[in-house]
């Protein structure tokens, strides 16, 4: 099994999410949130969130991952709006994220959440991702 970074999933892959960050970013503004089922507190997803990135008025979702068994039933949408509510507490004006080219399921999910393409296309290892953004009020 490989992860989106094109490397095999290693025993410490989950731990790395806590420390990975863009060069020059103040890691003290990074947050990792678990997505849990309300009825039994089972962990079904994770969100990697960078506040004040790429600028002081923005937050960036570095990773939003939900167990495939819990997709297409409204839990991703519910989790996203909880994340957005948290971002609004910090008075951020926009949220940015990247969607790997070819990830149409991810693209349509974010589009339904109110995100739109910025026109930016950036390399990611041997692939590219498209930057999406949502302005907050």
Characterization of this structure:
- The chain has 137 residues and is α+β, with helices and mostly antiparallel strands.
- The protein has one domain (29-135): 3-Layer(aba) Sandwich (Aminopeptidase), CATH 3.40.630.30.
- The chain has three helices and six strands, in the order H-E-E-E-H-E-H-E-E.
- The protein has a six-stranded mixed beta sheet, with helices on one face.
- A hairpin with a 6-residue loop joins strand 1 and strand 2 (43-51).
How would the blueprint of this fold be written?
Layout: H1 13-16, E1 30-36, E2 43-51, E3 58-66, H2 75-89, E4 94-100, H3 104-112, E5 116-124, E6 127-135
Parallel strand pairs: 3-4
Antiparallel strand pairs: 1-2, 2-3, 4-6, 5-6
| SSE sequence, one letter per element | HEEEHEHEE
Total number of distinct structural domains: 1
**Unreliable stretches, pLDDT < 50, 5 or more residues?**
none
- Tally of helical segments: 3
CATH superfamily: Gcn5-related N-acetyltransferase (GNAT)
Helix content estimate: 10-25%
Strand pairing plus helix content: what structural class? Answer: alpha+beta
Task: Supply Rg.
Answer: 15 Å
* Number of β-strand runs: 6
CATH architecture: 3-Layer(aba) Sandwich
Give the overall pLDDT as a whole number: 89
Biggest beta sheet summary:
6 strands, mixed
The level-1 CATH class: Alpha Beta
Percentage beta strand? 35-45%
Identify the overall geometry: globular
According to CATH, what is the topology? Aminopeptidase
Ends: how far apart? 40 Å
Strand ordering within the main sheet: 1-2-3-4-6-5
């Amino acid at each position: 099994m490989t992860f989106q970074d094109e490397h095999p999933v290693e025993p410490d892959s989950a731990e790395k999410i806590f420390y990975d960050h863009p060069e020059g970013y103040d890691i003290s503004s990074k947050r990792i949130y678990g997505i849990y089922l309300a009825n039994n507190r089972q962990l079904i997803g994770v969100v990697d969130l960078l506040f004040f990135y790429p600028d002081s008025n923005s937050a960036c979702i570095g990773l939003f991952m939900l167990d495939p068994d819990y997709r297409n039933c409204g839990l991703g949408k519910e989790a996203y709006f909880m994340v957005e509510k948290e971002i609004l507490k910090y008075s951020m004006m926009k949220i940015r994220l990247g969607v790997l080219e070819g990830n149409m399921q991810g693209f349509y999910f974010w589009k339904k959440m109110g995100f739109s393409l910025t026109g930016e296309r950036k390399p990611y290892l041997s692939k590219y991702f498209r930057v999406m953004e949502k302005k907050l009020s």
